[in-house]
Structure formats: structure tokens, C-alpha cells
């Protein structure tokens, strides 16, 4: 009974939002929790737990993970991993890597918006264009709320991963 209690406490510590420690001594986060502190973790090595939603079929050089809430997503570049197998889709993984940031400036976002409007004039699906314009609006709102002159896209340069299923 004591062993079961100890195992439960250890599991909770490893997967909590506070960034528990893994054997490699890198903080471990559920993806949903990482995004709350991602700016503090830029250029740091962390382990992130999430579900694989997609792997690039041709090269396997990246995959996308989603958090438990299904609201948070992150791209993982294969980096030292070499590649991701398409069979990982749907699997829960713990991926270790370095957190990076790509910044989209207002100029880039305005170009994206112009492109959407051009495609609308060419007859591209209104539903698709409306969704893209909503994303652009969300980016601008994010910038305004944080007082930033860019929109941050966070991703990870992968080092290793383990399947947790």
C-alpha cells in the first residue's frame, strides 16, 4: 500500500503544471501548462507531454502535439530525433527539446491578411477565409493584450521522445 501511495505521489509530481523533474533533470510540463510559462522557458531544455495529432508524412521532420484541453498545440522539429514515424499519430508522448520562438511582425500579419482577401476575390471558400481572418484577428488581439509588436509562435527543437501509451 505504501508503494502504491509513493508511486501516485511521484506520478503527480512528474506531470504537474509546476514543472516536475524527470530523470534527465529537465522540467516536465503538460503542454497546456507549458504555455502558461513558455516565455520563461525560451531556449531552455524541457520535456513536454502531449498527444501527436500529425507527423509530416514525406520527411518525418516534424510533428504536432496537442494538450489535454485540445486548445494548445505545438510543433516539434525532429532535430536530434532524426524523424517521426506516422504511426505516432494519436499517441501520448513525452518529448524533450529546446523551446524556441518564431516572431510574426505586424507587417507579415498584414501580408497574410491581404493574401486572404485576394483569395476571397478569387472565389476560395468563404468558410476557409473567415477562419483565417479570425486567426489573424486573434494574433492582433494577443499582441495588443501583451503590448508586443509581434505575434509569438512557440515550437520545440526535439532531442528525444518516449511513447507513454
Describe this structure in words.
The protein folds into 2 domains: 2-102 and 152-163, Nucleic acid-binding proteins (OB fold (Dihydrolipoamide Acetyltransferase, E2P)); 105-146. 35% of the residues lie in helices and 33% in strands. It contains 4 helices and 7 strands. By secondary structure, it is of the alpha+beta class. It has helices spanning 2-14, 31-37, 106-121, 126-146; strands at residues 20-21, 27-30, 45-55, 62-66, 73-77, 92-105, 150-163. It starts with a helix and ends with a strand. The chain has a 5-stranded mixed barrel with strand order 3-4-5-7-6.
Annotated CATH homologous superfamily of the largest domain: Nucleic acid-binding proteins
Helix count?
Answer: 4
What class, by secondary structure content?
Answer: alpha+beta
**What average pLDDT do the residues reach?**
84
Helical content class: 25-40%
- Biggest β-sheet: strands ordered side by side in the sheet: 3-4-5-7-6
CATH first level of the largest domain: Mainly Beta
CATH architecture of the largest domain: Beta Barrel
Amino acid at each position: 500500500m505504501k508503494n502504491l501511495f509513493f508511486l501516485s505521489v511521484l506520478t503527480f509530481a512528474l506531470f504537474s503544471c509546476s514543472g516536475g523533474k524527470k530523470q534527465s533533470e529537465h522540467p516536465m510540463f503538460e503542454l497546456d501548462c507549458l504555455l502558461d510559462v513558455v516565455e520563461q522557458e525560451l531556449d531552455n531544455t524541457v520535456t513536454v507531454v502531449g498527444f501527436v495529432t500529425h507527423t509530416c508524412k514525406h520527411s518525418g521532420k516534424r510533428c504536432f502535439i496537442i494538450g489535454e484541453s485540445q486548445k494548445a498545440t505545438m510543433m516539434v522539429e525532429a532535430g536530434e530525433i532524426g524523424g517521426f514515424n506516422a504511426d505516432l499519430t494519436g499517441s501520448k508522448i513525452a518529448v524533450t527539446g529546446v523551446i524556441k520562438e518564431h516572431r510574426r511582425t505586424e507587417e507579415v500579419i498584414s501580408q497574410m491578411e491581404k493574401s486572404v482577401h485576394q483569395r476571397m476575390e478569387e472565389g476560395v471558400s468563404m468558410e476557409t477565409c473567415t477562419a483565417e481572418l479570425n486567426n489573424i484577428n486573434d494574433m492582433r488581439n494577443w499582441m495588443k493584450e501583451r503590448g508586443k509588436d509581434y505575434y509569438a509562435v512557440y515550437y520545440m527543437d526535439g532531442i528525444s521522445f518516449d511513447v507513454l501509451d
